[in-house]
Write a structure and sequence with these properties.
Blueprint: H1 3-40, H2 45-80
């Protein structure tokens, strides 16, 4: 497999992991919020609180994954020089 195909596959993997991390973080927040609302009878307060926490966690995951990939790319450029 040539370098272009490897780079494309790696990019697709990173993009898909970004999407999954956002969706899963929001889904976990919503599920936890709904269960707490059901348990405590506080509908819709915990739903919205944990929805926003899930959204924030999803964007934090994007930042962490993107910064990790940028560091790997910078280290790869340094090794090639």
């Amino acid at each position: 497999m040539n370098e272009d195909k490897k780079g494309l596959i790696k990019t697709l993997a990173v993009v898909s992991s970004l999407g999954l991390s956002i969706v899963l973080a929001i889904a976990f927040g919503v599920i936890i919020g709904l269960k707490l609302d059901e348990w405590l009878g506080t509908h819709p307060w915990f739903f919205f609180i944990f929805l926003f926490i899930g959204i924030a966690a999803g964007f934090r995951n994007i930042y962490v994954i993107a910064s990790r990939e940028l560091r790997k790319e910078e280290q790869g450029e340094d090794k090639r020089r």
